[in-house]
Amino acid sequence: MATFVGALDQGTTSNRFIIFDHSGQIVGVDQKEHEQIFQQPGWVEHNPVEIWQNTQDVIRGSLAKAGLSGSDLAAVGITNQRETTMIWDKNTGKPFTNAIVWQCTRTNEICKKLMLDQGQNRFRDKTGLPIATYFSGPKIKWILDNVPEARATAAKGEALFGTMETWIIWWLTGGPNGGSHVTDVTNASRTMLMDLSALQWDEEILRIMGIPWQILPRIVPSSDIRTWGTTLKDGPFGARVPVCGALGDQQAALVGQTCFNTGEAKNTYGTGCFLLLNTGTKQTPSRHGLLTTLGYQINDQPPVYCLEGSIAITGALVQWLRDNLNLISAAEEIENLAMTVEDNGGAYFVPAFSGLFAPYWRSDARGVIVGLTRFVNKGHIARAVLESTAYQTRDIVEAMNKDSGVQLSALKVDGGMVANELLMQFQSDILNVPVIRPSVSETTALGAAYAAGLAVGFWIDLEELRQNWAVDRTWHPAMSLKVRKKHCLEWKKAVDRTFNWME
Question: With bands split at pLDDT 50, 70 and 90, how would you rate the model's confidence at 1?
Fold first, then answer.
């Protein structure tokens, strides 16, 4: 009898395969980074062939470390970097280009042209999204407009579009030999092509963008009892395992944090930072720069919606400090460096490397460090780097409080950066609410595992999942109102300095 569930976490910087037991505890994990490709300023790409190879490697590696075989898994779920976009030949599996990563800004001109008619919110009533370089639709159009082979193959009905979970599921279930071409509702909701109410591709938007519907995957629930296929016996699992759960990474963390009640929120601190608030089965339009998006859908139950605040650069700023400035040799060193000083020394770092996402949505913004004096040293810079994540999160929370009409009372947190206790304390201080870290911090992969396990009856219902959630540590605010107000005012001034850099 299969007593475990596996989840692939296809992230922005690496692939991880994690095996969970029935209590939601990790029994096996393997991870492998992939190359970040920067061909031009503002362009960010991944090699999808490398990602598929790494996927196979980490599946085999995780099973080996756990001493398990594929037949020990009841189901497999996928979670992924959401808006990253690719098109490939369905007969060969060969991509026409590298995958265009969610951070990439090459579609800025396409977005500007789309905004000429009715502005940035042209499609918001249908999709819940503003027109922005972040989303998949303009990336699809860019590939079709700039890669003649992709356009020609699409016209013949022999090209397939997918975000990364679609690409991985297609290969896991057969690839060119009958692989399942699907995307779950959460990933579909990030394309700027799906009607949020109908959960279907919108014909009018497809026509405006010149995207043929034939290349699009079938939209399915996040947890689907019908399954989309099984893995192949000669594949990385060495067995037939149902593939039946998929969630975009931030929605997966929402599920992994068991934020199933309306009003519950989580924030994931990874390459970027993403705060999601469960708004129930009702869509909540945003008037303050947030996104209305799908949270999850279990089988044929009504979908659950969210408000989301998306921040492009958080953990990636620590990587930048490591790789571009060489101020640290490993990401975890930043906490000790930041603790060599008592505060930021008056320095603020706004990492608008590819513009600013929520709540500003300014593609013209670029990164700044402000407030520099000769007093400032590398410790102050390190602290400013960490604090920028907390300030950007506060910007999101302020907008979310206005949109929802409910004041945040506590914040569940997850992701790689939550190991940084200096950051977590400052986050609590600047939000003035408790910050809660769960005992299992790999909530993104856990959410994908939950989606797959629910589909096959490994877990019975959401209440059973709630029983698995437990607190590891809680941080409480310890900053005075006067100091908080001063810091937030200076942060807002710093953000203002990023605007209008690009024409």
Answer: low
